[in-house]
Amino acid sequence: MDKVLFVVDMQEMYVGRGRDKTTYSYDADALIDAINKRISAYKAEEVFYIVSYKKGLLGGGMPKEGTPAASFPAKLKVVSKNIYSKSKPDAFSNVALEDFMRARNVKEIEFVGVDGGISVINTAIGAIECGMKVVFNEECIGTVFKDKANKCREKLKKNKVTYIHS
Questions:
Q1: Which domains does the chain have, with CATH numbers?
Q2: 91 phi, psi to nearest 5 deg
C-alpha cells in the first residue's frame, strides 16, 4: 500500500447541519461532495478516517466520543473500518496509526477534511516526520484558521508538500 487517503475530522461537530456555522463557516455540503469523490478514487483499504475525541475534561473544541457531535455526517462515504482517533491535533500522536502506516510501508498520504489550519496541518507535519510524502487536496480541505494555514504553507512547501486541486 504505497498511497493512502486521510479523511480528517469529518464529524458532525465540524461539518454537520447542526454545527456552529459562525465558527465553521465553510460550505460543508460542497466539501463533503468533493471529499466523497476523492474517497471513490481509492480502494476501501486505502481510506483512513481520523476522528477527534475530547479526553477527560480537556479537549477544547473536540466532541466527546459516543455523542452525536462525534459521529460522521450521513452524507459522508464511509467505505472502511480504518478509523483512528486522536485527542491532539496530530493524528500521529496515536502510536497505533504510525505503527500501521510503517507496517504497510505507506509512502504517500493525501489529506482531505478539516481544519486546514490545525488538524490537517499538524497531522501532515507528523507524516513528514515519519518520512512520508504529503499531498494536500485544497478543494477538499475546509479551513477556519486561515492565518495558521497560510503561515504553515510555506514551511510545508519547503518540506516538499504537494498542493493539488481535484
A1: 11-55+62-164 (3.40.50.850)
A2: -60, -25
